[in-house]
Amino acid sequence: MLKVLHFEDDAGNYTTGLEANIAAWEGTRWSPLWRCLKLPVVRSIAKFAYDKWAAIRYARLYMNS
Length: 65
Description:
By secondary structure, the protein is mainly alpha-helical. It has 3 helices and 2 strands, in the order ββααα. It has helices at about 15-25, 30-35, 40-60, and strands at about 5-10, 15. It has a two-stranded antiparallel ribbon.
């Protein structure tokens, strides 16, 4: 669970990764910016970037001990 962000909504459903990031920001004034990440072309690029960032973050925080 440390490798990617997890988000639980009010109904008890979980999302992970980029979807969790978008869900977490939807309650803020920045939600329109984050909602654009749901567009098909943007989503594929954003998911790729998020997955790379998450892998680097995990390695930096938990694999260099």
